[in-house]
Amino acid sequence: MQQTLRRRGFLAAGLSLGGAAPAPRHVAAADPPAPSGLKVAPSSQAGLSPRLTFHAIDIFHGATGAGLKVDLSRYEGGAWKQLKTVEVAPGGRPADPLLVGEAYTPGRYEVVMHVGDYFERLGVKLPKPAFFSKVPLRIVIHDASQRVHLPVLFSPWGYSFYRGS
Amino acid sequence: MAGITTHVLDNLTGRPGAGMRIDFSVFENGNWRLVKTLVTNADGRTDQPVLPASEAKAGDYELTFHIGDYYTTQGKLSPEALFVDTTMPIRFSVFDVAQHYHVPMLCTPWSCATYRGS
Predict the structure, then answer these.
(1) What is the pLDDT of residues B53-68, one digit of tens each?
(2) Is A99 helix (H, G, I), strand (E, B) or coil?
């Protein structure tokens, strides 16, 4: 709890790009939005029903990937068929699981993260076109009775993902 | 040196990922066009550059790593053991042909990582 409060205090004190603003910063019309800070402790999903969940961490800013758009597709009939586009909420996860209930079925899935748009919106100076614009991650769900968590750590120059918990 | 190179590191064994198939494509006229298929050597690299300096051109490129075949044939894992899909693409842009682009793939059956390397 203390940790949470301290983080909130830090944010209130003006965490911005670079995190060095000395005073509370009011976003002017021309200013890019600040990345979403890390305000909450990790949450365990142990014991939840089978589902596919996603969590994006922006390791360039030390923030969650709030505002990151992701497309979810499934491999069907020889092609990737887009199922939905969702946005990552302030906590780093989309509001709802990517797949849950009847929608959660075995198959090959692709998550495409719009990291180019994400960093551009935050005002990060990058080459044009950026090294990464739309980042695909491909996973397989073999057994729909198991819960699958997909965490991703990303920056403008690299990313990693793994089977999480 | 400009151009594109890659390197596969198998973090399950801590060894170079030898014998992995990689498809190299370029984005042209709204589609991915396969340029060539490569196979990693004993050091996890390709004998020839993915794209030699002489052919370096700004654009969008894709390296698709056949991670599934690699772990099921060489690693003797069952396909059900894999979390990463059988094919895992990395898509990136060459924005300055004077620079070199080294794009490594670090993988296990359950994870992937890449970055702009050197």
Answers:
(1) 999 999 999 999 999 9
(2) strand
